[in-house]
Here is the input.
Amino acid sequence: MKKIGITGGIGSGKTTVCKIFESLDIPVYYADTEAKKIMTSNLSVKKQMKDLLGDQAFYNNGKPDRKYIASRIFNDKELLAKINEIIHPAVQLDADRWFEILKSEGKSKYCLKEAALLVETGSYKSLNSLIVVTCPEDIRIHRVMQRDKMKFEDVIKKVRNQWPEEDKVRLADFVIINDGKTSLIPQIWSIHNKLMSKY
Here is the structure.
């Protein structure tokens, strides 16, 4: 079973694309969702985060204070890099376990690993192919402002902490355009067929 990465800038619609792949019975590992669970359940990760950001990074119930964490890391690239160094290896281990379980079941020819920072962290290099979901920046910003009820300047900070879209596209084996005008299903169906025949 092959591991296929899927990424794209914030607001590009990665989750929407993944849901369509799931409708084709392709398993998807959502790295960003799992990272949130790991921040709550993994004691080593929690301790390292508290050492870095202080006890106020977590509520008394053990859940991370996302607003506080975001306010610290998105204004400080060095701090953001240190947080990524704590979380990403733990997510990678979790993803590897997930892949091994899937592989042993032998139900699918390929699976997807969805993550916003697949390229930035270099973890795409351990995968067999890379899909990049693209969308014009102004549409992405508008989507995130609507979805997360965020201010324009806060969304821009998140966008600037990711690689430019064109740099990701250069590394891509497949590109999906999700601009609200181009139909997703034919693009995904074409990639799916290529991946099924390739493997």
